[in-house]
Amino acid sequence: MRLLGFIFILVSLMVGIGSNLSSFIDAPSLIFVIPGALALLLFAGQDVGNMFGAVFSADATSEQLTAAADAWEHTGIYAQAMGGIGTIIGLVLMLKNMDDPAALGPGMAIALLTVFYGLFVAYAVALPLQTRLRSRAAG
Questions:
Q1: Which residues make Cβ contacts (< 8 Å) with residue 80, sequence separation at least 6?
Q2: 50/37 Cα distance (integer angstroms)
Q3: Is-contact 29 117, C-beta < 8 A?
Q4: With bands split at pLDDT 50, 70 and 90, how would you rate the model's confidence at 3?
Q5: Contact at 8 Å (CB) between 69 and 137?
């Protein structure tokens, strides 16, 4: 069933994005959100190794699963925070270039895509993993 859910997510994204996939790829936004969330996890003292290890381990203990679920919960929060910060950065870049309409696009891309990436990481990656790990920890 999990594989089916993953396939439905991919199909939904492909239908929604259509032939505009390249419009949704912005390296600065992606680099800001994902490594930024990872940096915040490390700064908060989360065990990132256990976070990924528990997802793929069949014999993780209940404590490891709970700690990993907590880390994935924080990942969602941090990814959304980095998306919000990226939006502000994008808006500042946009407003800085108001006199040059051609320069508005990159700032707008950063402003919107950082939110998209943050929400995607939070709700399409971190929340399902957190939910799955908590259910495994419960028994």
A1: 118, 119, 122
A2: 16
A3: yes
A4: confident
A5: yes
Q: pLDDT, tens digit, for every residue of 11-36?
A: 887 888 777 778 888 898 999 999 99
Phi-psi region of 45 (alpha: psi -120 to 50; beta: other; left: phi over 0): left
pLDDT single digits (tens) 50-91: 999 999 999 999 999 999 999 999 999 999 999 999 999 999
Tally DSSP H helices, then E strands, for the chain: 6, 0
Give me 109's structure tokens.
């891309």
From 74, 64, 86, select the one nearest 43 (Cα to Cα). Answer: 74
- Structure pTM? 0.86
Cα-to-chain-centroid distance, residue 80? 7
What is the C-alpha R_g of the chain? 17
